[in-house]
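Annex B. Sample input.
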Amino acid sequence: MIRLAPLFIILVGCDNIDPSLTNDTDTLMQGIYLLAFLALVLTGIGRTISISQTLKYLAIWAALLIALIYAYSFRTELNTAYLRVKGELFPTLAQPAGDGVVTLRRNVDGHFSVQVDVNNTPATFLIDTGASSVVLPYRVADTLGYDPANLSFIIQVGTANGTAVAAPIKIERMEIDGIIVRDVSALVVEEGKLGQPLLGMSFLNRLHGFSVSGNTMTLTQ
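Annex B, continued. Sample output.
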């Protein structure tokens, strides 16, 4: 039977490792190799292992280490592939593409939608470059903390459901995966006239830029 005391001592000792070492890639990989070697050694403590078994264990650990090193060497490509698959499966989730840059995938309906944190409350917006302002449906506005009963519906607007009246508001903070815009002008449309929030030009014009290439939209802070 494997003696657990040495393994226990090693695991407890790991608490004394400086966490900053994990930021050093070379040190991290060396630590992985060391732990793998220790695991191999500890497997044999307290029992007799034949040469054939030893060679078998060495072959298994060598294969695991080679697989680990191989996968680690392709970490950038694997991360890119992961983000692409994630974007296809969850098109409303923005994908980070660099400092202050995110990308979106086109929905099956041909439009771009994105999850936006409005004052730290998530809501899914349809991106509409034809809308001059961010527009919130009546019930969504209520969910986000803007009580329609206390708003002044004084602006006439055109919607897919015909002419409607809307109330002007200011949204304190809107964020798309690190892209933050504050004090955004928006409208709340009367009840029953709009089905989904629209991310219009009062938000998009506050960005450094946005562009569409094929099925991908890029937003730049």
